[in-house]
Amino acid sequence: MHPELSRLIDEAETVAVLTGAGISTESGIPDFRSPGGIWSKFRIIDHSEFMTSEAARLEDWRRRFFMEDQLGEVKPNRGHQMIARLIASGKSPAVITQNIDGLHQVSGVPDEQVIEVHGNARHANCTFCGARHEIAECRQMLEATGKAPVCRQCGSIVKSAVIMFGEAMPEKAFARAVRLAEDCDLFLAMGTSLVVHPAALLPKYALRAGAKLVIVNREATELDPLADLVLNGEIGELAGD
After folding, report:
1. Residue 34 DSSP class
2. Which are the catalytic amino acids?
């Protein structure tokens, strides 16, 4: 780990961690918005189209199955493992993530200590009763019927637990993220460009409450001038042991 980063973590009482796509690209998952990312392979289907069009739902589910096949092959990297150790030590109450890949949980972070502000691609929920459905179960439904999955309990539309364009952010998860940002004395942003709102506001909440800010990212961000430490490069090399 970079010595200055190690020092700031050691001196902090409570560390808030925010992760973005940059931590997962080191595990082999393409950035959604970069060349070769998901959005370069599939058109964007927003929430309203998904809910009103069977054809759109079928198209979206085929994309989800493609993503699930990708996620099944990737593993957490040194950056994920560093965060898992930080949480296991008790110094960080939870990790806030913009990612939908579930790699923090795979790395050993308990599900209740992962705050997912954009949802999770590894399972689905009924849009009416909320019943959880596994992606494999949804795939079996589509392959058996040729139609988009419906809830096994109430027959309503089933949607991946990812937050879609045009869909409201999970209010409880984001409120919890804000509380963590305001209660920490060190905010660590890793692998995020800090341009996607509202998650990009979290470091500002932390700074306003008096916390120090560390940004670890391949590229520069707009908040770099406000940070106490900026490290540009691979997260695994800069933050891993």
Report:
1. S
2. 118
Amino acid 171 reads E
Dump the DSSP string for 191-219.
Answer: S--S-STTGGGHHHHHHHTT-EEEEEESS
The fraction of the chain above a pLDDT of 70, given in percent, is 93
CA distance 83 to 165: 28
| Cβ burial 38-50 (10 Å sphere, 16+ → b, else e) | beeeeeebeeebb
Copy the structure tokens of residue 174.
Answer: 């984001």
Residues 69-86 pLDDT 10s: 876 678 999 999 999 999
| Sequence letter at residue 203 | P
> Does residue 199 come out as left (phi exceeding 0), alpha (psi in the -120 to 50 range) or beta?
alpha
Q: What is the dihedral of CA 184, 189, 193, 196, to 10 degrees?
A: -40
> Dihedral of CA 69/199/159/120: which sign?
positive
Give the predicted TM-score (pTM) of the model: 0.90
Per-residue burial over 179-202, b = 16 or more CB atoms within 10 Å of its CB, e = otherwise: ebbbebbbbbbbbbbbeeeebbeb
Domains of the chain: 1-29+75-118+169-241 (3.40.50.1220), 47-73+121-162 (3.30.1600.10)
Interval 142-154 mean pLDDT: 97
